[in-house]
Amino acid sequence: MRRVSIFGATGSIGQNTIDLIARAPQDYDVVALTGAGNIAQLAADARRLGADVAVTAYDDRLDDLRAALKGSGVAAAAGHNALIEAAARPADWVMSAIVGAAGLAPGLTALEQGATLALANKETLVCAGGLVLDTAARNGARLLPVDSEHSAVFQALIGEDIAAVERIIITASGGAFRDWPIKDLAKATLAQASSHPNWAMGQRITIDSASMFNKALELIETKEFFGVRPEQIETIIHPESMIHALVGFVDGALMAHVGPPDMRHAIGFALHWPERRDLPVERLDLARVSQLNFRAPDEARYPALRLARQVMERGGLSGAVFNAAKERALDAFIAGRIGFVDMASVVEEVLGQFEAEAGLIDAPMSLDNVLKTDHLARKKADGIMAERAGK
Ligand code: NDP
User: Which atom of ligand 1 is the closest one to the Cα of 147?
Assistant: First the structure.
């Protein structure tokens, strides 16, 4: 029996993970499941899978969770400390699928216990790549990618020497607005940005796909995860989302990972690694697919890609700044306080403000400094947006 915990169990990745685990319950001992606002789902899954503990991130939802778990034998807990305690419980395999920078601390705690961390939460490596990799190495823990692109690269690299890699190409669907005239983007609504052409995902990542902030995070994650140089990382628009990534080697070979857009492949690969097991995903019929298309991304349409390059070149804590500013700008877009194209300009301005203050980005990468930087970047983003709203 493998001991497993799922952080962000009630979300899109969490539910797909539970789908796989629930198909073979005899193989898994479920330690902790966590969520935030969706108490009914959290309690139902914790009961069904016989988890030791269910945790909501929201302190004020503890009574609701307790009531929903009454008589089940599953312990209920709430709040940030409870999330960290859940991550400290011994587990062999931990899914990191909380959305946003909130996923960082529980993931680090799981790595400190020597667990295998299946990393869907891309913010973890974007905000604190060096710290996360050091923590894993120090504790003999393993990181496995769950983002479909990084899982694809990881699979293409099996048996290969990273020194023989010339380039990594991360594909992008182009999101909801890939065919819109650029001048119309300023008028894009929340509902329009919240619909993805190929993937069914949480709302935040879907909007980040339309703006390509999601791809920007993935480019930074690629640099951190595989230890390649920024100029070795490319991105290309591939509207069908069938090829998830390609790895180019020094002899000119290009290895592509091809499959239907279903996150259960990448989750299942990480769950069963180093074995491959049968997964309930559609098998591609290439004759039916018939053709695959590619085009170069336009940085005027997707300024987030240019900002990602800036962050990759800059290093230090600039990833934490980038992500925090992006999260606040996204909150503001969702709340209807700023427009779609304003998100990138807010992030750019926050990065500029940090650059102007000597030493901030180059502070040592400790969890404390990452969290302080995250907090300050959010404050600066709020300040910029308040000032713009006042004009
Ligand atoms: P969802 O929004 O669907 O789910 C997010 C999860 O995090 C939910 O369980 C939610 O709880 C929980 N949560 C929200 N806020 C907090 C908080 N402050 N503290 C603790 N938990 C919180 O997201 P996705 O599943 O789409 O994405 C999860 C992560 O995986 C993201 O980092 C995303 O970038 C990454 N990812 C997602 C992919 C996808 O296909 N969806 C693909 C690749 C990566 P509740 O719902 O109960 O409020």
Answer: 43
Q: Which atom of ligand 1 is nearest to the CA of 83?
A: 20
Is it true that 2-145 and 315-390 share their CATH fold?
no
Reduced 3-state DSSP string for 312-368 = HHHCCCHHHHHHHHHHHHHHHHHCCCCCCCHHHHHHHHHHHHHHHCCCCCCCCCCHH
Q: What is the pLDDT of residues 328-382, one digit of tens each?
A: 999 999 999 999 999 999 999 999 999 999 889 999 999 999 999 999 999 999 9
* CA–CA distance, 391 with 128 (Å, rounded to integer): 35
Take residue 42 and report the two structure tokens written for it. 């959290």
CATH topology of domain 2-145: Rossmann fold (3.40.50)
Could you state, in order of their start, the residue ranges of all structural domains in the chain? Answer: 2-145, 150-258+267-289, 315-390
Mutate to test the pocket of ligand 1, among 205, 209, 217, 263 (most ligand atoms within 8 A of CB): 205
The CATH number of the domain covering residues in 315-390: 1.10.1740.10
* Ligand 1 pocket, Cβ-based, cut-off 6 angstroms: 8-14, 35-38, 57, 97-99, 102, 120-123, 147, 199, 201-202, 204-205, 263
Give residue-wise pLDDT tens across range 248-306: 999 999 999 999 999 999 999 999 999 999 999 999 999 999 999 999 999 889 999 99
Q: Measured between alpha carbons, how far is 304 from 213 in angstroms, rounded to an integer?
A: 5
